[in-house]
């Protein structure tokens, strides 16, 4: 009973994702969406389908808060199909979806979202806690950010969080950060992208996530990460910082938005849109083009980054 299991050699699971034949890659990012089509979720899905077709995307990333308000109740929860399979019906979106968990997902049965049995209902679904998608041109590191946030543990209010698989929390976080740090250090990919649910910098109602700025950001800064991509605030936003080349991109406009709480003139803010929408990413080994789209499919903001780690232009 005093057996201690060492996770010293544990590594993040790695999934191979092919690129186009010329080594380029395109994908969409959406977050904070599962509302059975309501709050314009269906309209965002429609435009994702249109843009996804135009870009001939390889996959879709979900930044979490996949099912409102309280995740899934189990693998048989009809919300899985009502909020996912029956909404993202466009042909271009029938690609692999890489999903992380958000804080709302932790209020339900977490194991259900992680259960491979969901792939029998809809094979495009794939959700894990922390993992790596190796797409040659880019490596994408998915991080389970909800366990970092103190208030879910200290002030859960009337919410019940499913921490099975997370506690003891300190060990869970320490192991994850250690695995992430070594994977980022070892990576030779042209582009390093980190995806989590929670914000790093945000002018939205949730603001910055101090726990991530303290514990995760230094690792990203030390390993030449290009982009940190998240949801959580129901908006589209782009921040840069003087401390590193990392561009911070929020795509959390998958359904309910227009909260109207914006911290104006926040340092580093390049773009903020309070409404629904999503983000597209087009990568070649030398360049990245990122575009934010609104619910009508209009391009709102472009970011072009050249792979010299220093040069970028915002238009
Ligand atoms: Zn959230």
UniProtKB/TrEMBL annotation:
Cellular-component GO terms for this entry: extracellular region
Domain called Calcineurin-like phosphoesterase: residue spans: 26-235
SUPFAM superfamilies, sorted: Metallo-dependent phosphatases
Cofactor(s) listed: Fe cation
Keywords: Glycoprotein, Hydrolase, Iron, Metal-binding, Secreted, Signal, Zinc
Top-level lineage group: Eukaryota
Any GO molecular function: acid phosphatase activity
A Pfam family it matches: Metallophos
Main location: secreted
Cofactor note: Binds 2 iron ions per subunit.
Annotated residues for binding of Fe cation 2: 65, 103, 197, 232
Keyword Repressor: no
Places the protein is found: Secreted
Family to which the UniProt record says this protein belongs: Belongs to the metallophosphoesterase superfamily. Purple acid phosphatase family.
Listed name of the protein: Purple acid phosphatase
Species name: Coptis chinensis
């Amino acid at each position: 009973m005093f057996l201690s299991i060492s996770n010293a050699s544990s590594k993040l699971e790695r999934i191979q994702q092919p690129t186009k034949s010329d080594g380029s890659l395109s994908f969409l990012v959406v977050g904070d969406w599962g509302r059975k089509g309501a709050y314009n979720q269906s309209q965002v899905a429609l435009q994702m389908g249109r843009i996804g077709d135009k870009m001939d995307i390889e996959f879709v990333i979900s930044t979490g808060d996949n099912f409102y308000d309280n995740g899934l109740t189990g693998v048989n929860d009809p919300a899985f199909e009502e909020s996912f399979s029956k909404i993202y019906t466009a042909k271009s979106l029938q690609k692999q979806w890489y999903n992380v968990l958000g804080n709302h997902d932790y209020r339900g049965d977490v194991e259900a979202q992680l259960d491979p049995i969901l792939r029998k209902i809809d094979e495009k679904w794939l959700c894990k806690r922390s993992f790596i998608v190796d797409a040659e041109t880019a490596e994408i590191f998915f991080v389970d950010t909800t366990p970092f946030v103190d208030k879910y543990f200290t002030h859960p209010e009337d919410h019940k969080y499913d921490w099975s698989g997370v506690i003891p929390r300190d060990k869970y976080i320490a192991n994850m950060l250690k695995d992430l740090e070594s994977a980022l250090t070892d990576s030779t990919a042209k582009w390093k992208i980190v995806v989590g649910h929670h914000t790093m910098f945000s002018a939205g109602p949730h603001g910055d996530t101090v726990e991530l700025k303290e514990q995760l950001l230094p690792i990203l800064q030390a390993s030449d990460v290009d982009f940190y991509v998240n949801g959580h605030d129901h908006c589209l936003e782009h921040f840069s910082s003087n401390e590193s080349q990392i561009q911070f991109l929020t795509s959390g406009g998958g359904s309910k938005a227009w909260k109207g709480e914006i911290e104006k003139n926040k340092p580093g803010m390049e773009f903020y849109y309070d409404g629904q929408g999503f983000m597209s990413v087009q990568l070649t080994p030398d360049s990245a083009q990122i575009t934010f789209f609104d619910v009508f499919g209009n391009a709102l903001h472009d970011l072009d980054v050249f792979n010299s780690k220093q040069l970028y232009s915002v238009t």
